[in-house]
Specification:
heterodimer, A: alpha+beta, five-stranded mixed beta sheet, 16% strand, globular, B: alpha+beta, 29 strands
């Protein structure tokens, strides 16, 4: 088997690609489809930098075979920025709260937060921390990230 | 032969320049428009939209992929190496061994003692014995497996004290002792005689991994004219360049190095880019094609530098009232296989001598001796990691201060109040701290916010079953701004254009700490324009002046001063031009937020860009250049006496923990940290450094350790090298105080490294307070805490 045809929804648009069957989703997104916003930190599903939303749920794309997204919907960090260039409230809140330092974990953090707020619009601090516990950050100490999610959710601290 | 008058004139000129500049720096920090504001980071939008291009995001078309074959043995001779099978694999462009290195087969941030490719022996499990370049990473990996190496295994040295023994195997030709340094102040014997109590303790700390989220990557692109371009994430473009030049056998001006934004550095990317950069460049030179060399996470752990492990013994003498009389310290500082950033760069540069200088802590002690041994071993090597040798010694002195307090029946704050530095104190090197000393202020501010007295009363079990016990701990700290070398300087260029926009050229790099925001803030403030009018040019050694590395908490201060100097040169032209246009003396003019106005007649306004356009049309200079070096560092090599670093940042941390006395698990439940930073150029960014640093210090205390077995690292991935998650780090309250630094931009001094340093001992002290167990060998993981409790005779009854 030389290649596999994959058709799926990517950031709201239909996409069709041919790829080697053992292609990992992260490599498909970055190297074939040119979306570099999804990062690679460990290649073992531990650090969360590679998070994308699969049918709205956060997954580690570095350990997910791309063929698993056949017929499904994938959202990457690029998909959060709107067509007119304006930002999702989470993106805006991360900027304003100072939750971005080196930025490597930022896409993973924002997407996990997006999944949380879609399901639970007014989470408590503990719920926010649990929802983001799959993403490691070495720069921020997490505090402003939690505050950013609260700000995006319209929750006073 | 020059006459005396000419000589005197020269001296006067020199003094005048310096004197004027000093005045410039001491401008009041009130009424600042841009500096001192928590402005949004200039690169945040690119990061939240996933648009910022990091090293690994560059296109790979046309690049060969480089891979490194490493030694499986910690210490061995290379008897033979056969590369024919690997070279014959389709898609392989090159398989290189030691003889293929065109220039110097050695690199290193201080001493180039690490082979680009090992020829005769290997000294640690990360050592390179061959390099491969191939069309794909997969083929390169396959090629590695086809290389055959015959080793003669040598006995390995795995402990720094073993390394110093007479019969120890020699790792390098010059022997295993890389550096012995000593500090002698006062009369130690007199100090012991004055002491009414003497305590002696030994503390051990392991190898730590930086665990930056972004693995290392580099791209080496050979140019048609024989020169080389290397780009990638890196903290030290100039250090990288000088190594590349030597390894390629090129003059420095034929090597061009470009920094790419980093996904974290923490000191690790001060020298890992030299390692992979030199190797990629050698492959690129050999093949004539661009080479991309990326490390997998496991390779980062095996190959790149670590935090130095140490065995530290302190003997501390004090009077019954807690006044310290004598301090004797011994450090066995494990350098590992190669010198990296350990050895001394005279007078006070390099991590080892820094550890020696910092070991007695921020306390007035009349009689001090420190003996510090920096030893090679066949382990991964120690480089720079946030704090650069200071965190280790803080873990020792802050714990023994608590142990002493317990012995004397004193509150841990009381014993510190008795001895902590204040304005005018003399350090262990005899340096008189004559300005910007906010240590005691941080102690009182922290104690107030944390409610130390109240919480002290509330330590005890939090549950009826008496399984979880609460305790509190304090840690004091101090940390230099600058690196203490003779050549610590920063250059900056500022260009203003005819539309009033500005370009800022510095070699300081961005790794998340916020330099790409803070340095333009200073530039905008000085020019009198808005922040969005200043564009920072990404560090490129062909374009930016020598700046030194982005380390040592030096960037805001040293580069900030250089930027002020550069900006003022341009501003002089702007105000002179505005003066001609407004017919008002320049001394009455003020530039702020892009508008120039007459102080005495504020309605008389000229736009900055109008003055810039006129200046350009009149052929006036709109180019500014700044160069700033700190007051000279001094340190006597025999006595360790002198002024090694010109100013220090101070801090006090307080932690509250809950210890499960049955399992040894520790939860940090609350945290307050106070800092004297001189001046916060961007207060929100300062908070970010504090919060992130505390988390790092927490990891050191509770969970981080590179586990080695027979010289082989065991926990290579983020799954088993544990760093704090969002569930491990408590809410952190930061307090920022400002005791202005006369030698800093608007009074600023460094902040990057101070925050993680006192966090570790504050937490360890809190654990001891909570459960009676004192962990002196890190990390204080549940097993160690459990045994410490047992050793203390069991958990407290109440």
């Amino acid at each position: 088997m030389n290649s596999l045809d994959l058709a799926f929804q990517l950031n709201g648009r239909a996409v069709k690609v041919s790829m080697a069957p053992d292609t990992l989703l992260v490599d498909l997104l970055r190297d074939v489809l040119g979306l570099k916003g999804t990062k690679i930190g460990c290649r073992e599903g531990e650090c969360g930098a590679c998070t994308v939303l699969l049918d709205g749920r956060p997954v580690n794309s570095c350990i997910l075979p791309a063929l698993k997204v056949q017929g499904r919907s994938v959202v990457t960090i690029e998909g959060l920025t709107r067509a007119d260039g304006s930002l999702d409230p989470l993106q805006q809140a991360f900027i304003e709260t100072g939750a971005v330092q080196c930025g490597f974990c930022t896409p993973g953090m924002i997407l996990n937060a997006k999944a949380l707020l879609t399901e639970n619009p007014k989470p408590g601090e503990e719920e926010i921390r649990r929802a983001l516990s799959g993403v490691l950050c070495r720069c921020t100490g997490y505090q402003k990230i939690v505050q950013a999610v609260q700000a995006a959710a319209g929750i006073a601290e | 032969m020059r006459n005396q008058d000419e000589g005197r004139k020269d001296v006067q000129l020199l003094t005048k320049e310096k004197f004027d500049f000093q005045q410039l720096l001491q401008s009041p920090s009130t009424d600042l428009a841009v500096a001192g504001q928590s402005v949004q980071r200039t690169d945040a939008r690119l990061k939240v939209t996933g648009k910022l291009i990091y090293g690994a995001d560059y296109g790979q078309q046309g690049f060969l992929h480089g891979k490194i074959l490493r030694s499986p043995h910690p210490h061995a001779l290379i008897l033979a190496i056969r590369t024919e099978k690997a070279a014959a694999l389709p898609g392989v462009a090159a398989v290189l061994t030691a003889r293929d290195v065109p220039g110097r087969n050695g690199f290193g941030a201080i001493i180039p003692d690490q082979p680009v490719i090992c020829g005769d022996k290997v000294r640690y499990v990360g050592d390179a014995v061959a390099l491969v370049a191939a069309e794909t990473e997969k083929i390169a990996q396959q090629a590695l497996e086809l290389i055959e190496v015959d080793y003669e295994i040598l006995p390995a040295v795995l402990d720094p004290r073993e390394a110093l023994k007479e019969d120890a195997p020699q790792i390098h030709e010059k022997g295993n002792l890389l550096s012995y340094n000593k500090l002698r102040k006062g009369d130690l014997e007199a100090g012991w005689r004055e002491a009414e109590v003497v305590l002696e303790r030994t503390y051990r700390v392991p190898f730590l991994e930086h665990a930056y989220l972004e693995p290392d990557v580099t791209m080496a692109v050979p140019q048609a004219d024989g020169t080389m371009v290397v780009e990638g994430p890196m903290q030290a473009p100039f250090t990288t360049r000088r190594n590349l030049a030597a390894v390629l056998g090129l003059p420095i001006n034929q090597v061009r190095v470009r920094q790419v934004p980093m996904g974290g550095g923490f000191g690790g990317k001060e020298d890992s880019p030299i390692d992979i950069g030199c190797r990629a460049a050698v492959l690129a030179r050999h093949t004539g094609r661009p080479v991309r060399l990326a490390l997998e996470r496991e390779e980062v752990t095996i190959q790149t530098c670590k935090r130095h492990p140490m065995i530290m013994t302190i003997k501390l003498g004090a009077r019954r009232d807690g006044t310290l009389t004598a301090f004797a310290g011994v450090i066995y500082d494990e350098q590992g296989a190669y010198a990296s950033l350990g050895p001394v760069i005279p007078p006070a540069g390099g991590s080892h001598i820094h550890s020696m200088i910092m070991m007695p802590g921020p306390y007035e002690i009349p009689h001090v001796s420190v003996d510090a041994y920096l030893c090679y071993t066949n382990h991964p090597y120690g480089g720079a990691m946030r704090g650069f040798g200071a965190p280790q010694v803080h873990i020792a002195h802050e714990q023994i201060m608590d142990e002493l307090a317990l012995e004397l029946g004193l509150d841990p704050l009381e014993i510190r109040r008795k001895n902590a530095f204040k304005l005018g104190s003399a350090t262990a090197t005899g340096q008189v701290l004559d300005q910007s000393v906010g240590l005691r202020e941080t102690l009182e501010a922290c104690a107030r916010e944390f409610d130390w007295a109240g919480r002290f009363r509330r330590t005890g079990y939090v549950d009826a079953e008496k399984t979880r016990r609460r305790g509190i701990g304090v840690g004091l700290g101090w940390y230099r701004t600058s690196i203490g070398t003779a050549g610590d300087g920063c250059g900056a260029n500022v260009y203003v254009h005819e539309d009033g926009s500005a370009l800022l050229f510095t070699g300081i790099t961005e790794m998340g700490q916020g330099s790409y925001t803070v340095l333009p803030q200073i530039c905008a403030e000085e020019l009198g324009i808005c922040l969005d009018q200043v564009r920072l040019v990404q560090p490129d050694t062909h374009m930016v002046p020598e700046s030194g590395p982005t380390v040592g908490s030096r960037s805001t201060t040293l580069m900030g001063n250089a930027i002020i100097q550069a900006a003022r040169q341009v501003k002089e032209t702007i105000l002179e031009t505005a003066s001609e246009m407004l017919l008002v003396p320049a001394s009455r003019l003020e530039a702020r937020a892009g508008r120039i106005c007459d102080r005495e007649n504020p309605e008389r306004v000229l736009l900055f860009r109008e003055a810039a356009a006129r200046a350009m049309a009149r052929g006036k200079r709109l180019i500014g250049q700044g160069w700033w070096t700190p007051p000279p560092a001094t340190l006597d090599p025999e006595t360790g006496q002198g002024n090694p670093y010109f100013v220090y940042t101070y801090s006090t941390h307080m932690a509250e923990v809950e210890v499960d006395v049955e399992t040894g698990e520790v939860e940090v439940t609350d945290y307050v940290a106070a800092f004297d930073v001189g001046k916060a150029i961007n207060p929100r960014a300062v908070e970010g450094q504090i919060e992130g640093g505390v988390a790092m210090g927490l990891g050191y205390a509770l969970m981080e350790e590179v586990v080695l077995k027979n010289g082989v690292p065991q926990n290579l991935s983020l799954q088993n090298y544990l760093i704090p998650t969002i569930l491990d780090v408590p809410r952190i309250k930061s307090i920022v105080l400002e005791m202005p630094n006369a030698h800093g931009p608007y009074g600023a001094k460094g902040i990057g490294e101070m925050p993680n340093i006192p966090a570790t001992p504050a937490i360890l002290n809190a654990i001891a307070n909570a459960c009676g167990g004192r962990v002196r060998s890190l990390p204080a993981d549940p097993e160690k805490v459990y045994w410490a409790i047992k050793e203390a005779g069991g958990a407290p009854q109440e």
